[in-house]
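User: Protein folding is very new to me. Would you mind checking the protein record under this note? It all follows right here:
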Amino acid sequence: MVRDRKDLTSGGEAAAGGALATLDRLFRRAGVRAPDRPALADVPNGAVRAPAVPRRLTFLQADRAITAFAARLNALRLAPGAVVALHLPNTVESVVALLGTLRAGLAAAPLPPLWRKQDIVAALAPVGARAIVSFPQGAAAAMEAAAELFPIRYVCGFGHDLPDGVVPLDDCFDDRATALPPSCQSGAAGDPPAVITFDLTKDGRQPILRSQAELVAAGRAAAAAMTLAAGAKVLSTLAPGSFAAIALAVIPWLLAGGTLALHQPFDPEGFAAQTHAQGPWTVLLPGPVIAALEEAKLIGPGVACLVALWRAAERLGEAPARHLAARLVDVACFGELGFHIAARGDDGRPAPIVHGVGPAIETACSARGTLMLRGPMLPARLAQWPRDESGFVDTGLPCRREGNGLIVTGRPAGMVSVGGERLLMRAVEESVSAINPHATILALPDALTGERLAGTAPDPAAMRRKLDEQGVHPLVAAAFRPWPRPNASPPSTTWSGREAVAALPQSA
């Protein structure tokens, strides 16, 4: 056995609950309390894992896998604090890799699984990543990006049929002894950047560096708003690669010491089966899909709480009142800078963003009508977002006062928001015109994803092929796909709720 139950207490329970809390200490505290409790679980029939068997790990098994992953990284002789990119889908491996990277004393840079070469290179070049961990469907893009990024020395991967040159990591889940050397700074607290995510500005991808203390502050606020009890079960449909996915799913799970189930990709029948089994569940999902889920009768009695993430915060202000048997909690996301979380009241309407001090974040409206943020959730290191004399950071999101609250009314100019992905429209147009100056692409409203990209070209199939070859975001290539039926409207505005949910892009 890799670690006995006594080892799981390392770090101290008092420290895990106090100001020096780290993700590793929170995990060890949960593990010592219930080492045989189910900790991590994949969706039972996730297509992304085929033909492999979905993983289910107890806390003791997860601890072994985390230690084994940390030891594999340590064997690569990366310098302390080196950045490791995690280009993984929403599966057990993504959580093991995140916690294992931190246990190894390194910084994790989770990337959205839909990203291809162009986005990976743009994000990782400024942070000097030394390794990438990917999966079969993303390994080719990871290797292409590594070929353009000189500091990257290793591309590793989970899963079967990895390309030549990718270091396999599935043996991290073998039931065998693994030890970390003393030089591995497990659970280092406080100031060093622990997790790097990437926001989008008019100047392109910008790294957001967060310490573990900042992550835990956000996670505590989320867990409090969800009213998670000890041992609670959390099901997350949120794609990894963002601050919100970590703060809303991983850290509340660690604080509750329960089970985290990971759903990827979105499958209506799989979702229904998973939430009907062994509830009650707290379910994290994109806010815009709730109407389709309700119409499709997929929100069963096993769902006790729905946490709706609105990545385009302006859509929350337009959301209708909704009365469900499950408790409904809304999260207004402000890019990678922070979020506001609040439960809906008896009227079923979304609560406005608190003007002033909220859970782990304080908001204000600037003189020019934009949303300002400060508080323990906000990263201390923000080179691209200077603070004013009061310590507030201007998000650039237009907003207005409404009573004692704030309403986000739009997004920064030049951005397009498709599900959970934000793209710079200028860059999208340049990628398309560079291939064929006669091609066009534009953003159109979409009932489910907020916006969608639609493109025309003399040869759409050739355009899709060229965009894929150049490693452009797959949502851009998908804009040139043919519609399923001639002269049909966008699927999400004409399909049934069940069909719309099934068509939900992984980015949402």
Q: What stands out?
A: The first strand starts at residue 38 and ends at 42. The chain has three domains: 59-210, 224-408, 415-502.
